Structure formats: structure tokens, C-alpha cells
């Protein structure tokens, strides 16, 4: 799952580096300006991450984003027309159930399937976080971390997000990359960051600053993080015994997962429900790996010395 998440998200990072989907539509995708800004951000993050000063190393991603943002500003890539003066000076107090409350069983089923998928992804992310943080990736403590800190936290947070008129949220793979690049895995740092995000969410200007950030700036940083996520997945796989069954499970799950990600039109004629579930390569590969692990039975033969 972790390997699939990293490999699937690399495409997202590359699209951002080229200028995003807007650049694809207007024909500027991949021009020297977009790629140049993304490269500056990428090399800035790498430079600061290799510094001996721990504060520069921990701030490498933020510093890279700031350098890229400033460069994009001078190149005229920041569109300030999207930010009104009223929004910049405003203050926002969330109102619970602002858009009303309704119950729809079909929606329950659809969202339930989505959360089943995010639970699978959360399990992979928690496993990767545990591995790179020096925590066990099996046993009772690991299961408590997955069920409580991963899946249960996703459900509670998504419920709170719905109450305050926002989209459901989930553990995301960038966390793995952040931990590897900064070397910081303390949950207490996460508590402080969560508090800061709650306070910053009251000021629309913060959201506007990030929303008008050019895609190449964000792509240059996320591309590296996505690559480190895939590397974490490889480490998890390499730590296990790769026998014949594991090879088959890896082969079929990676083939189907990456196949759907690279060629999503393969499901174009499938029913809408099937498209909704299997349009994500992460979902397809994860469910395939689970089923293959249960259904494939291989009798291992002991090698004999001749």
C-alpha cells in the first residue's frame, strides 16, 4: 500500500511541477518557467536538508517553499486577482451545520465504501510512519496504533469536519515524507501544529496565501516527499521474506494498481459504482493485495543441493 501510494502520487507531483491542469488547458504545461521554479524548490529542499544545522534541516521544506514562492512572485506567476481585500482582512468563525443536516441511505453506503478504502490507506501510512520512526510494524502495540491513532482518528476527524462544513479527512502519505526529510516524528510536535492550524483556520488570508501558490512551487516540494514515501514502501517490503506467494501477491497488486493509475480509461465502460471504487490505483492495488493474500496458496518447495 505504501509503495503504491508513493508511486501513484508521483504523477500528481509531476503534473504540479509542469504547471498543473490549468497549464495543460492553456498550453503552458512544462514550459521552462514552470519547470525552472519547481527545480529551484526541489534543489533548495535538498540543499537545506543536507545542512549540518538541525534547524535548517528541519525547516528545509518550508524554506524551499518560501524561496519558490518569492521567485514565482517576481516572475509574475502569483495571481492576486483571486484574493479580494475583504477576504484578506476578514475573520471567520465556523458555524456547525451551516448547510443543514440530512440523512440519505445511498450516501451512507457510498461514503462508507470510501472510508473503507481510506482505512486501508491509513493502515499503510501508519505502517510507514512506524517504520521510519523506529516503532514496531507488527504486534499488539502496532495494532493499537493502527486501530486507534489511524482508523478511529480518521473517523472522528471526518465526523468533526462534516459538523463544521468541511470535507472528510484522512492520514495522508506526505506525512511519511515529512518525517524522513526533517527527522522529526514526535507526536507532541503534531499537537502543536494541530493547534496552530485550528487558529490559522480562523483567518481566511492564510487559506488565500496557500490557494494562490503556483503549482510548480508546491510540486517541487511534494515530488520529493512522494518519492520518499515510495522509498519507505520499498523498505517495508524489503524487511519481509519475499517467497513465491509474496512475489505473486506483489506482482498482481502492483500490476493492477499501477495499471489503473496509468490508464484510468480501462474502466470507462464499467458501471458508475465500479468506477467510483476502483478508479484509484491505491484502492485497486490494496484490495487486490488483500484478496490475493487470502486466495493464493503456494506450496513452498525446499531447494535440494545437487
The helix-strand sequence is: HHHHHHHHHHHHHHH
What oligomerization state is this entry in? Answer: single chain
Low-confidence stretches: none
Largest sheet: none
Number of helices: 15
Q: Specify the structural class.
A: mainly alpha
- Using only C-alpha atoms, the radius of gyration works out to 22 Å
Assign a percent range to the helix content: 55-70%
Rough outline: globular
Question: Could you outline the blueprint of secondary structure elements for this entry?
Answer:
Elements: H1 2-17, H2 20-26, H3 32-49, H4 54-58, H5 60-74, H6 85-88, H7 105-132, H8 140-163, H9 174-182, H10 187-200, H11 204-211, H12 215-238, H13 244-262, H14 272-278, H15 281-295
Helix pairs in contact: 1-12, 3-5, 3-12, 5-12, 7-8, 7-9, 7-12, 7-15, 9-12, 13-15
Describe this structure in words.
With 306 residues, this protein is mainly alpha-helical. Helix content is 70%, strand content 0%. The chain has 15 helices and no strands. Helix 7 packs across helix 15. It is globular and about 65 Å long.
Amino acid at each position: 500500500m505504501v509503495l503504491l501510494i508513493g508511486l501513484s502520487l508521483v504523477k500528481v507531483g509531476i503534473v504540479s511541477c509542469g504547471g498543473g491542469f490549468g497549464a495543460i488547458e492553456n498550453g503552458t504545461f512544462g514550459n521552462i518557467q514552470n519547470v525552472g521554479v519547481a527545480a529551484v524548490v526541489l534543489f533548495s529542499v535538498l540543499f537545506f536538508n543536507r545542512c549540518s544545522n538541525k534547524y535548517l534541516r528541519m525547516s528545509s521544506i518550508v524554506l524551499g517553499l518560501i524561496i519558490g514562492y518569492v521567485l514565482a512572485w517576481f516572475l509574475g506567476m502569483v495571481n492576486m486577482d483571486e484574493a479580494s481585500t475583504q477576504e484578506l482582512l476578514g475573520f471567520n468563525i465556523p458555524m456547525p451545520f451551516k448547510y443543514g443536516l440530512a440523512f440519505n441511505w445511498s450516501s451512507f453506503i457510498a461514503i462508507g465504501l470510501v472510508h473503507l478504502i481510506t482505512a486501508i490507506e491509513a493502515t499503510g501510512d501508519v505502517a510507514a510512519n512506524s517504520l521510519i520512526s523506529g516503532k514496531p510494524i507488527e504486534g499488539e502495540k502496532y495494532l493499537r496504533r493502527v486501530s486507534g491513532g489511524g482508523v478511529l482518528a480518521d473517523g472522528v476527524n471526518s465526523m468533526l469536519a462534516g459538523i463544521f462544513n468541511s470535507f472528510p479527512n484522512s492520514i495522508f502519505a506526505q506525512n511519511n515524507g515529512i518525517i524522513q526529510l526533517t527527522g522529526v516524528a514526535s507526536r507532541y510536535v503534531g499537537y502543536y501544529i494541530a493547534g496552530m492550524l485550528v487558529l490559522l483556520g480562523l483567518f481566511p488570508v492564510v487559506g488565500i496565501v496557500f490557494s494562490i501558490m503556483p503549482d510548480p512551487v508546491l510540486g517541487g516540494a511534494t515530488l520529493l516527499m512522494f518519492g520518499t514515501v515510495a522509498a519507505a514502501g520499498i523498505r517495508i517490503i524489503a524487511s519481509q521474506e519475499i517467497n513465491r506467494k509474496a512475489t505473486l501477491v506483489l506482482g498482481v497488486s502492483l500490476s493492477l494498481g499501477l495499471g489503473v493509475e496509468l490508464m484510468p480509461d480501462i474502466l470507462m465502460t464499467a458501471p458508475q459504482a465500479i468506477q467510483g471504487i476502483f478508479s484509484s490505483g491505491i484502492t485497486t492495488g490494496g484490495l487486490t493485495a488483500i484478496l490475493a493474500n487470502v486466495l493464493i496458496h503456494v506450496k513452498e518447495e525446499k531447494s535440494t543441493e545437487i
